[in-house]
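Task: complex structure prediction.
Instruction: return structure tokens for all chains below.
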Amino acid sequence: MSTPDQVLPHGRILRYTFRERLTHWAAAFSYIYLLLTGLAFWSPWLFWLAVLLGGAPVSRMLHPWAGLVFIGAVLYMYGMWAGQMRTTETDKAWWHSLHYYITNQDEKMPPAGRYNAGQKLLFWGFFLCGLLLLLTGVILWFPEYIPWNLRILRYIAVFLHASAALLTIGLFMIHIYMSVFAERGAFGSVIRGDVSEDFAKRYHPGWYNEVVGSSTPRK
Amino acid sequence: MSQATLRVQKISGHAGSVPGEGTQREYTVCKLIDTTTCIGCKACEVACMEWNDLPFGETIFGNTYQTMPETRWNYWNLILFNEHEREDGTLMWLMRKNQCMHCAEPGCLAACPADGAIIQYTNGIVDFQQDKCIGCGYCITGCPFNIPKFNPETKRVFKCTLCTDRVSEGLEPACIKSCPTGCLHFGSKDDMKELAERRAKQLREHFNFPNAGVYDPPGVGGTGVVYVLHDATQPEIYGGLPKDPHIPWTVKLWKGPLKWLGNAAMIGGLIGLFVHYLRYGPKDRDEEVKTPHEGAQP
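Output:
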């Protein structure tokens, strides 16, 4: 996992490779489009979102294709990250100390590795909901091809598609909050790829030791 | 398509109240289809295509009168032919004119997300507005009668309009006009129900159909099309007429509790995160406190 190349000059540490960042943003932009058009179909009070995005028929037409981009990115992420997303003993302890995390007493948290337990939940949540959204979404894409005696598939799909989408919205809101507002430096890390030593030590001490311990810092 | 002369009482995917709702009272209109006097001549099918300018489509030949398995986006009115064997071994030929039932509580309208794509007029007609349709096909899922049909070319959904354009001018629908046996009637719901019940009573008392009755399913709030059936206890034998049709419960859950729960959770989540930021701020706030910013007074 860790290579000496991850330790950059000026006390910076490489957190996300170009490949990881690109995949992240493919998922992010497709998800945001799916979210906005999906919300338009979810509630009449938000139907204007579809009008804003080029009209509801266009949104209906492109939403499934954006879904394919999204699920493609999510599956690629699975290939990149699934190995790093396994639950460890530290993660269990992390959940027990969740109240410290919420109240910003991070020094009392068990030392997280490259991903803390919350990030792992985000990953698995999006992965599983993504698969569910894909399965139900295909049915909703072509409802006219579902024969009448298999109509139960459509009945299940409309409900599960919305339910799974709502779960991802919950994860998404927390993800945005943590990465843009709560942990300063996180948003930059997924743009430029690197974080400060302080950031690494503060939020991912296990990962910091792994990276720095395996190499001689170049100052 | 919309008719300015008809008042609207329900609009799909609409935020807020229905403009003009309840300003005028109207009779609820109704078709009465007496399956016991239908001869399967298909005049109603032809009249429907003629009046609505529907192009002729390909038919199938399976050695039966059933030249089409179900209605299509450009074929809104189809007689379903069924050979039914009675308990005593005798054969009955059942014919049922199938089309949109114009439910009082339409599942298509409940499921539709597009503002104004499906409307219900005060007279009970449920009509699709293709110019506002987005082609999602949710109406197909909401309908318990398998009626809305998708046109893959235009990506719009179509069905019987109950000849809204004729009815709004005080005429009867084209299918009714064409029926040679008088098995089709059109009028107010109350009148049609009365006529239907009278006919069912006649069938029970004088024609040896003890189970004869009227099909006006309460699960969808009653329908704008009522049937007289020889055997109202088995509507399924008439080409799969559902015994107790209702909007699929997953659609009701999705458009009811899930919507409120989801909206409450999303709004609650946004407020919760905002309040959390006000209370706790960013996680590295101690850095700021340790090293006051440049402009601060010593």
